[in-house]
Structures are given as structure tokens and as C-alpha cells.
């Protein structure tokens, strides 16, 4: 009888230790520089282990105290500590949080991602953004994804797949646009172009709908948009590292379909990735009849209805610089 009780108890202990039943899984995040004791506390709190001291014991016996990898780990609930130790030393998903600001071109986005080591090949990222077949696989019929890599804060895996990152950014763009308009995705390209111009010209949100309307008013009257931002984009296409703070008269004569001083109407495509406020401005512009604007020097603009008023404003604000 004693033997039966002993072996029954032993069986129960072994069964509990091995835990062959599937009680589900949980994703556990182990921050960088977390101590073994802190890891044990996290695992206990999340019901991955029952006894933190037993976990620490096996961690020491196995000589793995300094081999636990930070990141996100998918672990089974209430498994034996040896299983947990070996799962933790294999390494988890270590996501990187990265913010892509508004107003960047494809090459600038690629550079940020590359510097943060969230992708393996910067040139492949740029190439995919201009690959028509790949772009079609994302549900867009465009020559380039310029303007469609939505600026936002993303959580990305280290050395992630370039195509996956692009898809994530484009899907974010689609979701954001669907939240502000019922227009189908294949009919908003011109809106994205205008939004990209607004993004580069405006600093303050209250001016974005006004600037959008200025561009639309000029298009309606068949006047060139004369946006300096489009000329700067021409030079950035040649060299993404170009920094231009002032355009000379000869710069405004560079021959490119993106030069809105030479070519009327909208440029062939967006000149950057606009943020949500610029997209809203392009979709819902202000009800004004301005045709011109000039920078005041404080981040805001002076808007004019006539060319004569515009010249006076330019003279006044240029004299203050």
C-alpha cells in the first residue's frame, strides 16, 4: 500500500513537472538588461512558471544565467523550468519602435530604417518602392510609392523583410485615408499630390487647408503652382542628401516635369509622404479665394488675392529678413 502511495505521488509530481497538457500560450516581453530574478518574477506573474526559485535553480544548474535573450517570447503556460530556460536562451522577437516623420521622400525613409537596423537592404527597399509589379500586389496602380509610406510610429522587428515593412506602411496609409474619406483608393492620387505639396509648404496645421485651396485655385485658373518645394524635390531626386534653404533664380529654371514654375498643373506624383493633417487639408480645403502666399519668416504665411498685393508682401517680408 505504501509503495502504491509513493509511486502515485511520484507520478503526480513528474506529471506536474513535465506538464504534458496544453494550457495555451502567452507572449512574454523580456526587456533588455533584465536580471535573472526579474525574469523569474515576470514568468511567475504571467503564469509561465509556478515557482520562481525552482526556475532560478535550474537556470544556475544549466549554466544559462547570462544567456537569456531579451525580446518577445511565445511560451506555453505552466511548463517545466528546463523547457522555459531553453526557450528563453533561443532568443525572442526584439522589436524596435521607430518614428517616420512627415514630409520625407522614399530614400530618406530608407535611410532612417537602415540606420536603425530594421532592414537588411536599403537599396532593395528603394527598388521595391518603385517596382510596378510589387506595387500592384499592394492593390495600387502607381509607378512609385512616393507619398504612400505613411508617416507614423511603427514597431518593427530587427532585420525585418523590406517588403513586409513597405506593406505595413502602405496598409497604414490605406487605413488612415479610409477613416477620413469615402473616396476609393484608386481616385485619390491627385489628392495625395496636393497633400504632399501642403506638407512641404506648411508648418502649422491651421494654414494647411488655406495652402491647399491656393493650389486648387491656381489649377482652376490654369496658372502654374510655382511651389518651391517641387523644385527642391527635383534636386533631392538627384541627391537625397541635398539640403536647400534658398533657391536661386537659375534653380527655378531646372527642366523637370516636377518643376511647377515651368510646367502648369500638378507634378507627375507626390513629392513626399504627407501626414494626416495635410491629407485632410487636401480633401477639405478652406473656402478662400487666395492665389498667392509668401513666408513671413515666423513659420506662418501672408496670403494674397492679387499679384500686386503679393509683390508688396514679398518686398515687405524680404526686407525684414
Automatic annotation (TrEMBL):
Reactions catalysed, as given in the entry: a peptidoglycan chain = a peptidoglycan chain with N-acetyl-1,6-anhydromuramyl-[peptide] at the reducing end + a peptidoglycan chain with N-acetylglucosamine at the non-reducing end
InterPro entries hit by this protein: MLTG-like
Residues carrying the site annotation Important for catalytic activity: 201
Annotated GO CC locations: plasma membrane
Keywords in alphabetical order: Cell membrane, Cell wall biogenesis/degradation, Lyase, Membrane, Transmembrane, Transmembrane helix
Function: Functions as a peptidoglycan terminase that cleaves nascent peptidoglycan strands endolytically to terminate their elongation.
Protein name: Endolytic murein transglycosylase
Taxonomic source organism: candidate division WOR-3 bacterium
Protein's gene: mltG
Amino acid at each position: 500500500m505504501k509503495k502504491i502511495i509513493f509511486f502515485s505521488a511520484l507520478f503526480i509530481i513528474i506529471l506536474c513537472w513535465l506538464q504534458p497538457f496544453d494550457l495555451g500560450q502567452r507572449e512574454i516581453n523580456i526587456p533588455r538588461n533584465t536580471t535573472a530574478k526579474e525574469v523569474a518574477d515576470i514568468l511567475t506573474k504571467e503564469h509561465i512558471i509556478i515557482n520562481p526559485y525552482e526556475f532560478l535553480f535550474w537556470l544556475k544548474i544549466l549554466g544559462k544565467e547570462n544567456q537569456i535573450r531579451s525580446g518577445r517570447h511565445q511560451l506555453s503556460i505552466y511548463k517545466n523550468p528546463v523547457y522555459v530556460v531553453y526557450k528563453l536562451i533561443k532568443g525572442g522577437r526584439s522589436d524596435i519602435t521607430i518614428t517616420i516623420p512627415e514630409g520625407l521622400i522614399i530614400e530618406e525613409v530608407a535611410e532612417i530604417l537602415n540606420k536603425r537596423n530594421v532592414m537588411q537592404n536599403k537599396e532593395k527597399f528603394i527598388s521595391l518602392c518603385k517596382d510596378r509589379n510589387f506595387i500592384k500586389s499592394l492593390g495600387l496602380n502607381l509607378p512609385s510609392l512616393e507619398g504612400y509610406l505613411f508617416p507614423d510610429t511603427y514597431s518593427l522587428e530587427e532585420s525585418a523583410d523590406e517588403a513586409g515593412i513597405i506593406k505595413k506602411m502602405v496598409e497604414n496609409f490605406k487605413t488612415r485615408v479610409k477613416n477620413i474619406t469615402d473616396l476609393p483608393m484608386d481616385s485619390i492620387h491627385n489628392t495625395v499630390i496636393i497633400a504632399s505639396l501642403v506638407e512641404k509648404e506648411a508648418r502649422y496645421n491651421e494654414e494647411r487647408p488655406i495652402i491647399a485651396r491656393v493650389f486648387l485655385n491656381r489649377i482652376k485658373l490654369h496658372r502654374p503652382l510655382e511651389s518651391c518645394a517641387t523644385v527642391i524635390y527635383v534636386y533631392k531626386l538627384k541627391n537625397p542628401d541635398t539640403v536647400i534653404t534658398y533657391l536661386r533664380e537659375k534653380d527655378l529654371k531646372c527642366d523637370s516635369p516636377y518643376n511647377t514654375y515651368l510646367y502648369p498643373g500638378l507634378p507627375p506624383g507626390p513629392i513626399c509622404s504627407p501626414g494626416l493633417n495635410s491629407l485632410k487639408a487636401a480633401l477639405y480645403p478652406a473656402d478662400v479665394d487666395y492665389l498667392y502666399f509668401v513666408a513671413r519668416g515666423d513659420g506662418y504665411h501672408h496670403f494674397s488675392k492679387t499679384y500686386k498685393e503679393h509683390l508688396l508682401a514679398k518686398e515687405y517680408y524680404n526686407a525684414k529678413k
